[in-house]
Design brief:
By secondary structure, the protein is α/β, with parallel strands linked by helices. It contains 23 helices and 14 strands.
Length: 524
């Protein structure tokens, strides 16, 4: 109460800083970290005491970026750059990349303007290092990027005392890879798509790595393990099909060879928690639903209508979205496209409005002039629909007075060449911002129009992860803090070895523009 009496007083800058620092300390001692942060945004001249307090507050709020900024600023003032400090700063910066918009989301809800990252050389160098360690791709490219960073930032504290994670980059190089995919039978096309993506990524690297490809459709799990052992594989990649993965995992765990499974194990696996040498990579629809839940919250939506079909993938996405969504959901389910308009109308309340008109007309015994009214309390629409269904959804929304609402959708709405413009969609980064090697693969196999594009992209990402597998199955530090831009999304690893991804959110219109631009570049 005493501090509140001074809030509207006029003070000098130094007294003002003292007052707000004292206010922040008071809030912090009462475990009210968000109000402590609010007070610290009013401080104009920063001191070591300020950065120590801000680091404490940001730690309490789980604000990794803010915490890292404080640690770097404090390092500038104290000149402390020992191994412990270096490791803490880099690991915190990597953690900040996991949920890049989460801090702003919390602060926006509290009506607080976020503190900006100081533009010191030390901050710029640390952020540049975090960028090369998360975006270079394969481990070999990351090693080269780290070498280049050291040359450019030769006097930076992280160059003079390298963090432990950078010292572990060169541990156990990958000389031989065994790739296990279905290359015969009904699913041969699926296996070949992953294989072609994997080979394209390998050829772009020009590495001295032997690749041995085996047909998982023609061999039992134990035979595949023996084949990989016979070629002295440092890393095993595959199998791809879920049933094969579950049968293969127990043998792979016993072999202790770093193994990248190209599908996910069930949570209640018979052999318990997956062994540390097993990583699980895939393109699950659940990752897209989680991405959209975070994106909609960042855009401050609360009241959302989910329009979804009866497919297994749509129900998985809905369940995942519901788990991640902190507000009530309104759903519109349909079995066929013919049912889509009625499903939307029912949830929008138009059907109820029409029913009221019918009752009133019956009571009056004469026709009533009437314009149906839709509910006005929705903020956005989530469409768990295919491209054909999404195209049909547009006029359905117009008919039921909902065409003013922003529509979000998964990549499924882009996969059958009927993608509606204007939808905000989760999409594979390889299709939004491909590098030269990825663009060559897109052009060679016409991936912009291919229903197998996710599998080609999985092959690209699988190669990158294969180069990282020896480090991720040996170093608990890398496993805990691993974050990676990849062709299928931003990748991170759970304690069970499951690789999750966060995707790019773009508009269907912007995606089409990017495709046209890339096509023009390829024809020049």
């Amino acid at each position: 109460m005493l501090l509140n009496e001074f809030t509207n007083q006029e003070f000098s800058a130094s007294v003002n800083d003292w007052f707000y620092t004292l206010t922040a300390q008071a809030h912090s001692s009462l475990n009210n970290a968000i109000e402590a942060y609010r007070a610290l945004t009013q401080v104009s001249q920063t001191t070591a005491e300020y950065w120590v307090l801000l680091r404490q507050v940001c730690s309490a709020l789980a604000f990794s970026r803010c915490k890292a900024d404080s640690m770097i600023a404090l390092q500038n003032q104290t000149q402390l750059s020992g191994q412990v400090e270096q490791d803490a700063i880099l690991e915190t910066l990597l953690d900040a990349n996991r949920n890049p918009g989460s801090e702003d989301l919390v602060l926006t809800a509290a009506q607080i303007t976020p503190l900006s990252t100081p533009e010191t050389n030390s901050h710029l160098g640390w952020y540049a290092l975090a960028d090369v360690l998360t975006s270079a791709g394969s481990r070999q490219k990351t090693i080269a990027a780290w070498d280049n960073w050291q040359q450019r930032w030769s006097t930076h504290p992280a160059a003079l005392t390298p963090p432990t994670l950078t010292n572990e980059l060169a541990v156990k190089t990958t000389r031989s890879i065994a790739l296990l995919l279905p290359l015969s039978g009904n699913l041969a096309r699926v296996g070949r798509a992953v294989r072609d993506g994997f080979i394209a990524a390998l050829m772009a690297e020009e590495l001295n790595t032997d690749l041995h490809i085996f047909d998982s459709a023609n061999h039992s799990p134990i035979e595949l393990i023996r084949l990989a052992r016979n070629v002295s594989a440092d890393v095993v990649v595959g199998p791809l099909l879920k049933l094969n993965v579950e049968a293969f995992a127990a043998f792979a765990a016993a072999s202790e060879t770093p193994t990248l499974l190209l599908n996910y194990l069930p949570g209640d696996s018979d052999f318990g928690a997956p062994a540390i040498n097993l990583l699980q990579l895939g393109t699950a629809i659940e990752d897209e639903a989680t991405t959209l839940a975070a994106h909609l919250q960042t855009n401050q939506h609360e009241r959302v209508m989910v329009v979804y079909n009866d497919s297994a993938w749509a129900n998985k996405a809905l369940n995942t979205f519901r788990e991640a969504w902190p507000y009530p959901l309104h759903t519109a389910n349909f079995g066929t496209i013919k049912q889509l308009t009625n499903a939307v109308g029912s949830t929008m309340g138009v059907a109820a409005s029409t029913a009221r008109k019918t009752r009133i007309a019956a009571l009056l015994g004469e026709p009533v002039e009437f314009l149906p009214r839709a509910r006005q309390d929705l903020d956005a629409i989530l469409a768990l629909t295919t491209g054909f269904e999404s195209a049909a959804l547009v006029p359905a929304l117009q008919f039921h007075f909902a065409d003013h609402l922003p529509v979000y959708a998964t990549s499924q709405s882009l996969r059958d060449n009927k993608s509606p413009t204007g939808f905000a969609v989760t999409e594979l980064p390889v299709l939004v911002q491909p590098n030269a090697a990825e663009q060559a693969l897109i052009d060679a196999f016409n991936l912009n129009q291919s229903p197998l594009v996710d599998l080609y992209a999985l092959g690209l990402a699988a190669f990158q992860m294969a180069t990282w597998a020896p480090v991720l199955t040996e170093s608990s530090s890398w496993r805990e803090h691993f974050i990676r831009h990849s062709p299928i999304g931003m990748l991170s690893i759970s304690s069970t070895g499951r690789v999750s991804r966060t995707l790019t959110v773009t508009t269907a219109r912007d995606r089409q523009r990017a495709i046209s631009s890339a096509g023009n570049m390829g024809s020049e």
